[in-house]
Sequence to fold (67 residues):
Amino acid sequence: MSVAKVTEIIASSETSFDDAVKQGIERATKTLKGVSSAWVKDQQVVVNDGKITAYRVNLKVTFVLND
Fold:
């Protein structure tokens, strides 16, 4: 039997939402072992002087707990 836990993280990128997701997952897997999936809960952009300066994603990352 496996037990999983879900943790919420926020990641950002100056390039795109896809890049923000990629950076978030790469960073999460440095600390969390057994990452099995992620759900993009929310997306938002930061706007300065009428231009998008950052893309942010709120991720729910699922990882399996060790026995």
In short: The chain is about 20% helix and 55% strand.
